[in-house]
Write a structure and sequence with these properties.
By secondary structure, the chain is α/β, with parallel strands linked by helices. It is built from 4 helices and 8 strands. The strands form 2 sheets. It has a 4-stranded mixed beta sheet with strand order 2-1-4-3. β7 and β8 form a beta hairpin. The radius of gyration is 30 Å and the shape is rod-shaped. It starts with 19 loop residues before the first strand and ends with a strand.
Length: 173
């Protein structure tokens, strides 16, 4: 079986070292199986390159085309695919067990805007000093957040203790 290309991109012209290839001409017509040397001479006759499209096929598939144009088209496709993909970030919101109502509303607005942008939200509730003795207060705050965010989010990670803080992760529905 033929080895895959070692450098980035397909093998071109003299780099194709297999005895036979299945040739596709510049118009996209299947020409059938022929020797690599014949395929290369056909490509040079029309002033184009012989490019190995499918190296792992038996025999490998080669196409007559302009290699510079081919590389340009592939780069364009790659950039287009990169543009379309959305990177999901994890935004963190920090709260305290005895959070004031106004502060709570500000944090909720921030969480809603993060969720609308398609990001995940990590809610971290930090306990200080004697607050550790009353973890149920913190659990109630996280439960209230979960209930208010329920229509637009799903809980990816339920509240759990990590050292002196309780952590919960919400993601968009």
């Amino acid at each position: 079986m033929a080895a895959s290309p070692t450098r980035d991109g397909p093998r071109v012209n003299e780099e194709i070292r297999v005895p036979q290839v299945r040739l596709i001409d510049q118009d996209g017509e299947m020409q059938g199986v022929m020797s690599t040397r014949d395929a290369q001479s056909r490509a040079f006759a029309v002033g184009l390159d012989l490019v190995e499209i499918s190296p792992n096929a038996e025999p490998p598939v080669a196409k007559i085309l302009d290699f510079g144009k081919f590389k340009y088209e592939q780069q364009k496709k790659k950039n287009e695919a990169k543009k379309k993909q959305k990177v999901i970030e994890i935004k963190e919101i920090k709260v305290r067990p005895n959070i004031d109502e106004n502060d709570y509303q500000v944090k909720m607005r921030a969480m809603k805007s993060f969720i609308e942008e398609g990001d995940k939200v990590k809610v971290t509730l930090r306990f200080r000093g004697r607050e550790m003795a009353h973890q149920e207060i913190g659990a109630r705050v996280l439960e209230r957040i979960r209930e208010e965010m329920d229509p637009v989010t799903k809980v990816e990670q339920f509240p759990r203790m990590e050292n002196r803080q309780m952590v919960m992760v919400l993601s968009p529905r």
